[in-house]
């Protein structure tokens, strides 16, 4: 890091776009203090209607600018970046409406007494966002927290601060001072934020290893945390499935956002009777995807976030091949790495018959790599699906209604898709099980993370 700050790279070229200085300890403390002052001076007491109106202003403008910033720092194709900004706006609209939803209950009580429960905001919320969906996943946290009366200090990933910096600037024009502020930097900045006594809760999205550290640091202060962590999600395909639809979903599942998705369907568990046929369909569809420059309208897959990510992907695939797996690359390609403009590009890779103790099968690679194993029975399919410490998502494809219900009921994952993959709406709460974390984003259950229930007894009989 230079005196000008931490370099922000364009992953499509490897070149430096700008520098953003890390926020030091005094800067983090000042941001949290501003947020605490804003909370104490009345943001929590702002009427739900007023909070709703202000929230809607956050993303009303800047769509094109925000998408361009996302494309620059992540390498996303333009259409994908625009779509994510639009989804973020939908999330803001949802929570702007949710700010006015009724909460709490009235309980039976004797004469002269009214008893009820309500929910109160936790105060200052720290939102720590990842680099794969910098704006969108930060907005999931910010919108929910602000709608329910909290103030927020957000820390974007060090690789992708640009869209959050713009959002924080916009918040300075729309919201009262201190309601939404941003700090910048890597793990050290995150640790400083977690350690601030005035932070009431921490919402973190990122790797399981980093999530463990967040939970440990927050434990001393008894701060609640919401953790949306890694995944190694299975897609289970039976011989009686619509194989064409399943193949399209599998390709979307492991290549979407160049594989940099926590719910990526990175493990294919396929019926042995159709193994070769189905893998062939998937390989043909994956080979047709265009790896290229983000600004090119024909590009399907942009670069990975860093050179280290691309090199790690090549290493994992090579290790699987050395151990006997069949690696399928697009025709004419001998390496997963793709040399283009100095960027961090990779081709989609299928690791067929991956050893079950290999990194390709066990680790979250965060790249367009699909590991494949086959099964002969339903029980074997379930065992393979559950052969992971993660529990973020799973998908099953079958035309048998009984089997679909059984797998929907039995699969240990926070999100289960039957004969579909990847559906996500702002109205539905999502999150993981096991090493994929705890807490829920989006939907009605987000309120559980950003508020606390409170019991109230009001005596109103004269003389009591």
TrEMBL record:
Domain Aldehyde dehydrogenase: residue ranges: 7-456
Record keywords, A-Z: Oxidoreductase
Gene3D superfamilies assigned: Aldehyde Dehydrogenase, Chain A, domain 1, Aldehyde Dehydrogenase, Chain A, domain 2
Enzyme Commission no: 1.2.1.-
Active site (record annotation): 228
InterPro entries recorded: Ald_DH/histidinol_DH (IPR016161), Ald_DH_C (IPR016163), Ald_DH_CS_GLU (IPR029510), Ald_DH_N (IPR016162), Aldehyde_DH_dom (IPR015590)
PROSITE patterns recorded: ALDEHYDE_DEHYDR_GLU
GO MF annotations in UniProt: oxidoreductase activity
A Pfam short name: Aldedh
PANTHER family: ALDEHYDE DEHYDROGENASE-RELATED
Family statement: Belongs to the aldehyde dehydrogenase family.
Protein name, as recorded: Aldehyde dehydrogenase family protein
